[in-house]
Design a protein that fits this description.
Distance between the termini: 35 Å
Radius of gyration: 27 Å
Largest sheet: 11 strands, antiparallel
Order of helices and strands: EHHEHEEEHEEHHHHEEEHEEE
Strand order of the largest sheet: 7-6-5-4-3-13-12-11-10-9-8
Amino acid sequence: MEIDFLQYQVRNGDTLTSIASRLGMTSEELKWFHNSHCQKMDKVWFENLNEVKNIFVPTNFKTKEQKEQERKKSLPSQLSDSFFAQKYNVNETFEIPFESSVNINYMIDINLNKDKNTGQHILSYNQKDFTCNGNTPDDKISSISIACMQSIMPLEFVINEQGKITGFADHKKIIDTFSEQRKELEEFYIGEIFQNYLNTFERSINDEMFLLQQFQSTLLFQTLFPKIEWFQKKAKWKEYFHLVQNSFPVQCELDIEHENEDDNSILTILKGRITELCTSREIIRGIKLNEKTSQSASGTIVLEYTTHIKNKNLLEAKTSVLLSHEDQFIHQHHINITQG
């Protein structure tokens, strides 16, 4: 067992303040430390140490400033190539009233590098191995949807120093890739319904801003690509989140706290509540009516990030979104991302 304190022998003229100052502590901090380690009869309550023989003092005391510096150093402060692991497992659960929950699992491959010519961070992203409620989706619409997305993978995004995806590295490459892959898709997916789906998908990816928004509004991307500045926050602040995909972004007020998981990792927890003047039903429908409402939306978002203390690698991420109306939940979405 490691001993983190020792007994200091009180000398003539010593006071709580004089001893504490030599240790870089306040007298209140020293008094609390001594009283938490000594026998009940040996506790001290006054500045004067007359008749007090020994005081328990810490061997490795750290001031608030030192603790704050250590906290900052243990958390990510800038985006680096080592922030992301190469593989993650993703589990998403969707719940709405009176319907069975939907559980989706898939894998993600990630590779982040800095372009030597442009200085931009380029992130290669690939999704694969989808299952829904434990089974590979076999209905025609799910099948063609997954096939279309996989036909343009891997995607390359530009990501800034703060971890925010700002665009595609080469949008034209996405269009050209699907154009080449479409011929093979048409050989397998035959019929008017599939042709209409392929036409719609092609129109969607041709619109660069629309396609980017489709990814940015997912809970997955909002979770997997946090703003690096979040980890260094101390006070409350406000952020916008897409709490429901394809809906409008909603303002939330966030609190932050940190917990040491072990000697190698630290857990950062962000707890947010909706502060936007809109209703939960507007969020679900994705249409903001801009009308005055007497009952604002009730909802929360909680994001949790476990990062490695030394290399700042993202080990695990979790997010939960809850929307309710008149104390009854109307939408829940949970996501759990772990290294593969």
